[in-house]
Structure formats: structure tokens, C-alpha cells
């Protein structure tokens, strides 16, 4: 369970937000029991006992409302989920409305911001999910409020972690890391290059391209530094995941929720190395 999946509401209660792309009554409720136990214990350790906890589950378009049972009762314990079914969203209409507001310069309200984040999961096919995600990313990039833009981009990457490809994820991360001035320069540079190409102003194009190569070299050096830092953090995460495997009885899925930088395949490979 990641920290970015836990929210504190105004009344002091907490909420777990998770999403499911399929439905397995017993497996998923067993998983939620683990989440709940760990969160209650975490709040206890922090000296802030939890009095009310909401379990909010978003089901993607692949899951129909009529197939889901929201309660889980095993006698001594009951779970009541608060569910959202993305299959009930009219994704095309919502996206059209967001596009229209962006075109006329209107700000998106809080509901539309949340819709933009979760809209890819309202699509059924992987292709349509990716298309909607990429359009949502472009919309978020063009929001004038830089803080809101970064927040929406980050949230889209988190909520779409099971479908986003590595290239798109890296591009979003790079965009977030760039300064506002740097982004404006990047956009202006691209537009200037296009205009000069059209006018066949070859000399000026060469100058701009030389400048672009210089900036790209600096950017690549920064990327190398960031990747080196990522590798260092990844090594620490791998060490922590290995420790969990050796010292706890957590399943691979539970470890993935705690150390969410690895793929299921990487966790299985680590498990093999620990066992061997």
C-alpha cells in the first residue's frame, strides 16, 4: 500500500483509494484486510489512533457494477467498500467537454480534474486507454497553473501505472523536472525551427540546431545524473524488498504495494534469488 493511496479527510477520517481492472471477491478482500491492518497499525504507532477508515475502490471499464459485491462479512469482521464504476462514465462526452473548456481558456473544476486523471481507465481496450492517457497528458501540460499541471501529470502516471509505457512515463517525468522557463524555451525553439524550415532559411536553422545540440548534450548529462541517482535508489529499494522476503511472510503482491518501483516480474526474480 503506497502512501499516495491514503488520504485524510476534513472530518479526521482516513481513506484508502485503490483501483481494480478485474474482480476476484476472495483474493481482493483478503488484500484489503492486509491494507487495513497495516494502516491501523501505522496510525497507532504514530500516536494517532484511527477511528474511521473508508475503503474506496475504483473499478475500470472492464468490470461491470452488477458483478461486484461491495460487502464482505466473515462474522467477526465486516468490510463495506465505497465503489466507483468507470464503466458508467461517458468518456467521449467528458473528454469533449474538457477539450472545449481548454480551447476557450476556462479552468477545469475539481470534478473535471479528477475525471481527467481517471478517464484512461474508463476505456476498455489497452489501445484506447493509452490514447486517452496521452491526450490527457497533453491537456495537463497546457494548463496555465503550473502547480496544478504538475499535480495532474503526477496523478495520471500513478493511476495509470499498469498501462503507461516506459517512454511516455519518462517524457512526463522529464517535463515535470524541467523549469517553466525551460519548457517555454523548448516550445518556442520547436516552433521557430518549423517556421525556419518552411522559409528554407538554412543558415538560421543550422544555428538553432547547433544550439539545440548543445542544450541536448547538457540535458543528457542531467539525465545521466538522474539515472545514476535512480539506480542508487533502486538498489536500496531492492535491498529493502529482499529484506521483506527474508524476514516477513508478505506475498509478492503485498511487497509490490510497499515497494512499488518494481514490476511483478522483477519481484519474482528477486524471490528466486532469495530462495536460491
Please describe what this structure looks like.
With 276 residues, the protein is of the alpha/beta class. It has three domains: 3-88, no CATH class; 91-177; 189-275, no CATH class. The protein contains ten helices and five strands, in the order E-E-H-E-E-E-H-H-H-H-H-H-H-H-H. The protein has helices at 25-45, 91-103, 110-118, 126-141, 146-159, 166-177, 180-199, 202-247, 252-258, 264-275; strands at residues 6-8, 14-20, 53-59, 71-73, 78-85. It has a five-stranded mixed beta sheet with strand order 1-2-3-5-4, covered by helices on one side. Strand 4 and strand 5 (78-85) form a beta hairpin. Helix 8 packs across helix 10 (264-275). The longest helix has 46 residues, at 202-247. It is globular, with a radius of gyration of 23 Å.
Query: What's the helical proportion of residues?
Result: 55-70%
Gross morphology: globular
Q: What is the element string, with H for helices and E for strands?
A: EEHEEEHHHHHHHHH
How many E-type strands? Answer: 5
Radius of gyration: 23 Å
- The low-confidence runs, each spanning 5 or more residues with pLDDT under 50, are none
Strand content: 5-15%
Number of helices: 10
Largest sheet strand order = 1-2-3-5-4
Q: Main β-sheet, in a few words?
A: 5 strands, mixed
Helix/strand class? alpha/beta
CA(first)-CA(last) distance: 27 Å
Work out the count of structural domains: 3
Main attributes?
5 strands; 3 domains; 10 helices; 10% strand; alpha/beta; 276 residues; single chain
Secondary structure blueprint with pairings:
Blueprint: E1 6-8, E2 14-20, H1 25-45, E3 53-59, E4 71-73, E5 78-85, H2 91-103, H3 110-118, H4 126-141, H5 146-159, H6 166-177, H7 180-199, H8 202-247, H9 252-258, H10 264-275
Parallel strand pairs: 2-3, 3-5
Antiparallel strand pairs: 1-2, 4-5
